[in-house]
Amino acid sequence: MYKFFVFVIALTTTISCNNKSNSIHPSQESITQSVYASGTVKSKNQYEVYAKTPGIIEEVLVKEGDYVKAGQAIVKLSNTANILNYENAKLTAHYNSIQSNQEKIQQAKTELELAKSKLDNEWSLLERQKKLWAQEIGTQNEVDQRALNYKNANSAYLASKLKLDDLQKQLDYQNKIANTSADISAANMNDYIIKSQLAGRVYNIAKLKGEMANIQAPIAVIGAADQFYVELQIDEFDIAQIKIGQKVLISMDSYKGIVFEAVLDKIYPMMNERTRTFKAEASFTKKPENIFPNLSAEANIIIQVKENAITIPRSYLIDDNYVLLSNKEKRRISIGLKDYEKAEVLSGLTIKEELIKP
Length: 358
Known about the structure:
Blueprint: H1 2-21, E1 23-24, E2 27-43, E3 47-49, E4 55-60, E5 67-68, E6 73-77, H2 80-95, H3 102-134, H4 140-190, E7 193-195, E8 200-205, E9 212-213, E10 220-223, E11 228-235, E12 247-252, E13 255-272, E14 277-284, E15 296-313, E16 322-325, E17 330-332, E18 334-338, E19 342-347, E20 355-356
Antiparallel strand pairs: 1-20, 2-11, 2-15, 3-10, 4-6, 4-9, 5-8, 6-7, 8-10, 11-14, 12-13, 12-15, 13-14, 15-19, 16-17, 16-20, 18-19
Helix pairs in contact: 2-4, 3-4
């Protein structure tokens, strides 16, 4: 009997000690409500470089890490066939130019001048024959013959004029077509020189000399050299709380234990149906000295901060609405802000009351 009693006392003492070690009082402190988002570091204006036309890479003109200017050539593709097409287009343009066809134009002008001279001559002869016939010299048949000759000369003149006009129009049209073809060939030649769209840094070269470049696989990645932001993925359940201008705390595996500050400056309105997330961008206000694109990041978007709040650990909540007092009373309380560890008590509990962990 004595041994049993001692055991019970010891057990009761142990339970009491355990309860004491798990008992707390509410704290009065600041609490921050935030939304978690996963993210990836990007350089400003970062983009993937694609070839405009398929081709064999003849030369890679830059290295990873190089700084480039806007419009600077970074990759050259083999374009032997296009060079030949361009030379052929230039020859065709030259052949069809008005300058190269001056002989044809001059011949047509000469024919027109001769036709005009004959027309003027036939007009003089017709007028002379009419005057003679008015003096009853000659015959009406001679007048009619002169009139017919003049009519034929006029038709020949108009035909020569039309021939010259048509020749000039044809040469002008052919010249424009040939020059357009040459311009297209020249533009196509530019497609074989891949250039940077912006001044920045080459972060990746995905293709080597001799490899095939196509319009579907990126050749390189280029972005700003010293301006970075974090691309965030925000869950659809949290997006209603997110606003531009909110403070963002960024942590990265490459900088363990250090938190960097950013501000939310862009929210994309379309949800990704596959991931059920919204994309947003946050620009660094405090960034690491050495940072690189595509680093993984975790972010907490600050929704609200409340000072002097009464808080308890979330692990002490029962069904998000109740707590267990040290006297075993289960009490209903009203909860406000929450973070990952704490919850704000709006009513139903004071900082003097003692809680135990359920």
